[in-house]
């Protein structure tokens, strides 16, 4: 049976609620000890440690943003989103199969849990929006050709983990791209900032979703939904103060034996300066700074997908970054999805693989 090309997700006129930010990610990990040390070196702060769970927070908030829980295998366990309106929280609680939790996932704020179309638990956390705390502010004076601020004083050398300000966004691969992307728009008020489509079939395969805060500014994307061979968390990104912190964090993790995945560079969609690493499980995690901020007036933009619009400058994306090889495990998941009636199309995966395997800057030689 021939499957139709997915439509593009769009902003919902009447969403169930409007979330204002990503709250946290829950991960399952086989080895908690290795994970603990890695994320301390990554720049997070330890909140809680038990035999079954480790909670981390950023330097910008006391609320946990990263929960790592003991599991029989490495996987994503869930996602948290903040809602600040009591009315919205009550409305989302009325949705069929919504599960309320008066104390919340971490015992510090009430939440209600829904499952997205792929079965991922999504916690909507009721928490009044607060300004970030400011212990992370780093005073660095920069000398420029037209302005000298640092006189007779060397730039101080700093060694240690980067100071993570906040969890910025999460990218999910889904076999059912449109159903999931539209579900997040319909339930949580997300607005597609940019949608990437395949050049030949014109099928949408990636949607960058931002929160709808009205005329208040928000990140270019807090959630990204992308077509994938299997359903999984592809990467998460954490915001730092500036480029100096990006380089500092990169250097520290490499000193500690960490693995660089891609960077330093600057993205095109979202504009972030980025540096990607791999945690002990092999999952991608990103430090970023200087990302775009939009209000609700910016319309959705559409782009042909390719490696050339993944970044403005920096090293070319390494061949193993997106893991486009069709292994036996991936093919098994792909066939399972196809024959169970999911939206995933083999033609889409093959076309996506083809465009992402082509280097946009052939003059770069390694």
UniProtKB/TrEMBL annotation:
InterPro entries per record: Glyas_Bleomycin-R_OHBP_Dase, Glyas_Fos-R_dOase_dom, VOC_core
Family annotation (Pfam families): Glyoxalase
Keywords in alphabetical order: Dioxygenase, Oxidoreductase
VOC domain residues: 166-290
SUPFAM superfamilies per record: Glyoxalase/Bleomycin resistance protein/Dihydroxybiphenyl dioxygenase
Protein name stated in the entry: Extradiol dioxygenase
Database matches in Gene3D superfamilies: 2,3-Dihydroxybiphenyl 1,2-Dioxygenase, domain 1
Keyword flag Mitochondrion: no
GO MF term (any one): dioxygenase activity
Keyword Ligase in annotation: no
